[in-house]
Amino acid sequence: MILVLLGAPGAGKGTQAKNLIEKYGIHQISTGDILREAVKNQTETGIKAKGFMDSGDLVPDELVIEIIAEEVRRGCCVNGFILDGFPRTLAQGVELDKVLKKIHLQIDHVLDFEIKRETVVERIAGRRTCKSCGFGYHIRFSPPSKDGVCDKCDGELLQRADDTEETVNKRYDVYKKQSGELSGHYEKSSKYHKLDGESGVEEVFAEIVKILD
């Protein structure tokens, strides 16, 4: 089963991808996670992508496709995979269709999470990550016991450069500008499904399972 998850940053794609992995046992390809790991490890791809990510711009298509190709070649996608955060543009969607067709595969379902700007800003700008152990918090939904200090290791909590309110708003604008054509590309087929990203995690997942089953 091959799934594509669409939606603005903070729409809940990553959370639902984890639920899908647990239920269906398929691999997740999250371009955001892969790119951040590449940046952390200062790989050639990571160094190229860092400037775009820090400013809230989309990483160029060629870099994203290179990252995905590397992940698929690892051999962990035999039972299918979930694409979280890709494609983001019509050009990427068209290129993805071509790549899958060459290896006799096709997308089974496209899940599009709709969400308001203010919800995105609240969810993302409130994120904090421990500098030492990497554990994540949210200043409203899951705050640490002591402000700015990790409960697990007493490490300093930091906000990622691309999680500031200004950058989040820019990321949302970029997404909305380019998402219309991409959604239209998939809406033509029965594989496309819209979901309410404002709803609770369990409610959204129940709707996804209903679609897939």
Structure write-up:
A hairpin with a 5-residue loop joins strand 5 and strand 6. The chain has one domain (2-115, 165-212): 3-Layer(aba) Sandwich (Rossmann fold). Helix content is 49%, strand content 16%. It has 213 residues and is α/β, with parallel strands linked by helices. It is globular and about 50 Å long. It starts with a strand and ends with a helix. The mean pLDDT is 89.
What's the SSE blueprint?
Blueprint lengths: L1 E6 L5 H12 L2 E4 H10 L3 H12 L5 H13 L7 E4 L5 H13 L6 E6 L2 H9 L1 E4 L5 E3 L18 E2 L6 H23 L4 E5 L4 H12 L1
Parallel strand pairs: 1-3, 1-4, 2-3, 4-8
Antiparallel strand pairs: 5-6, 5-7
Helix pairs in contact: 1-8, 2-3, 5-7, 6-7
List keywords for this structure.
213 residues, 16% strand, Rossmann fold, three-stranded antiparallel sheet, alpha/beta, single chain
